[in-house]
Every structure is written in structure tokens, then in C-alpha cells.
């Protein structure tokens, strides 16, 4: 599969534009070759293009200095004999001085070697909060400050904050999964995720959490962070290839759970990421308002006042006595009816329908003010 078919021509044009900003002499075909040679890692590609530009400029300056020296020698050969030894020594001194200045300029123009890129998270297991702290520092060093966005120190705490509590106070959850081996990571993070309007909206309306999937040890550690999300969301994201990374997972717990995956390759637009975040948040607010309205219409459980607890035993005793009296009267009526039916056998039997008396609560047991 070609690169264009994998991520689209618009993404390729954007990558090449960023590379040509480093060296405007490099063409499209060379950009694609360098990307493939570096496994589509933008950071390594950028360093190689810089080194290539420095070597070209150095060779150009060397050729100019060598041509200048050859021209000077030709002029010396064309001059007539009889030049004094002092003039020859002066010319040699000036040539040596010019050559030393040229070497010094070349040395000053060369950029110092950059330190090796640090991983977003330590390879060893250091605890979730420490790993996320390292992620925030390295992310800010590479791509810029996260503004007011605070990365939650624990995935369980982030889930608890987003899924529990009063429904109108909950915020949707945004989980960011990073991958250094993706060639689109640098562009997405430096130009889209760190946009001021995107960071401001995330800080105000979302609970944000991030994790790096570049290293195998961190991929395995991810499955241990939250059992509630493991089967439905954490295990599937580990099956994603580097070409589908980085990615955002948006989760909402209001009138049921809703999830939406946001791929970086689908968000390479000036407003695409911001619009997606706003639409998901608006849907979350509508669902939260609906759930609150449904719960507010349900009847509240009966409230028993302390005064009612005091008169309840007396009322139960009165009701028990009334029930015993009614039972004895009913038995007396049944015996009288059976005797009368035996005296008149020709009369058809009619079932006795007992009267259901109504329970009357004495007025002194009623709570004042209730009807």
C-alpha cells in the first residue's frame, strides 16, 4: 500500500511542506524516500534533512574556496618573472589567513550535535503518576506547552470523575494515545493538538488523560490501569497499527455510555479537531439534561416523620383489635347463615360475600396539618 493511499494526499502534502521548510532544495520524491528510509518518523527525517543541507552548503563553500585558490595560482603563473621574495611571502600569508577564516566560518555555521530524543515515558515500570509526569514534560519540550490542560495522574480517577457524581456536573473523558513510530505524530501534536483554541476547550470541558504506546512495556502496563475500560477500549487500541496513531478516545457517561474514536489522520484540518470536540461535548450536555429530567420526575420515597414513628405502634395495636372484632362477627354471621340454609333446603345457595370494613384511624393519631 502506498503512502498516499494510507493517509491521503493532503497529509502527504502537509508533511512535505514541513520538510521543505527545513531545506527548500529538496523535491517531493526525495522527501518520500527519506520518510520511507526513516520508517515515517518525522523527527528522524527532520534531522537527516538538516544534516543533508549542512553537508551541501559545506561542499559548496569548499568548492568556492578551491576555485579561488586555483584562480590565484593561474594569475601568479601569468605574471612576469622578477617578483620579489617579500611579495611572495605576503601572498602566501594572505592565502593562509583567508583559508583559516573560511574554515572558521564553516565551523561556526555547523549546528551542534543534538542530544538523542528522550522517550515520552520511561521504558521501565515506574508507576502511573510518574510516567504521566514524564509524558507531560517531554510533550511540552517537543511540541509546546499544554496550556491549561492538566493530565490526570490516574486513569481510574479520571474515569471516576467522568462517570460518577451528579450527572449535570460530569465532564466527558478524553484519552490520548501517543506513538512515536507514526510519521504523522509530530505534525498532529505540534500544529493541531496544541492549538490554543483546542487546548482551551479541552481544559474547560474535558477530563484529559494520556499514555504512550511506543514501547512494548507501556503497552502491557496499559491493560493493568483500569479494568472497567480494559475489554471494550484498552485492548482494541493495542491492536492499532502505527499508521492509525496517534488517536483520541472520547467517552461520555450520561443517559448511557457513548464512545467516539478520533484518528489523527482524519483531523488534519484547521478546525476538524475543534469541531469534533465541540459536537461530542454538546451531545454529552443534552444527554445529561435528559437523564436529570427523567430522574427528577420519579416519585420520591415516602418520608416517615418522627411523630409518625411515635404513634405507629398505637395505631397498629388499634388496627389489630379492630381486625379481631371483625373476624369474630364474620364467624357469627356465617354460622347463622348456615343454620338458615339447613331449615330451607329448596332455597338456592348464595355465597356469602363478607363485607370488607374500612379501617378508620382515630383522629388523635393523625398528624396535624395532613388531610
Which spans of ≥5 residues are poorly predicted at pLDDT below 50?
Answer: 74-83, 110-115
Please count the beta strands (DSSP E, at least 2 residues each).
Answer: 4
Helix count, per DSSP?
13
Strand content: 5-15%
Counting helices, strands and paired strands, the structural category is: alpha+beta
C-alpha end-to-end distance: 80 Å
Give the overall average pLDDT. Answer: 75
Q: Note the run of SSEs as H and E.
A: HHHHHHHEHHEHHEEHH
Helix content: 55-70%
Characterize the main sheet: 4 strands, mixed
Strand order of the largest sheet: 2-1-3-4
Rg (CA only) = 42 Å
Global morphology? rod-shaped
Features:
371 residues; alpha+beta; four-stranded mixed beta sheet; 13 helices; 59% helix; rod-shaped
Description:
By secondary structure, this protein is α+β, with helices and mostly antiparallel strands. It is built from 13 helices and four strands. It has a four-stranded mixed beta sheet with strand order 2-1-3-4, with helices on both faces. Strand 3 and strand 4 (257-263) form a beta hairpin. The model is unreliable at 74-83 and 110-115 (pLDDT under 50).
Topology overview:
Elements: H1 3-7, H2 9-22, H3 28-37, H4 42-78, H5 85-109, H6 128-143, H7 155-163, E1 173-178, H8 185-193, H9 196-205, E2 207-212, H10 216-222, H11 227-238, E3 247-253, E4 257-263, H12 272-297, H13 306-343
Parallel strand pairs: 1-2
Antiparallel strand pairs: 1-3, 3-4
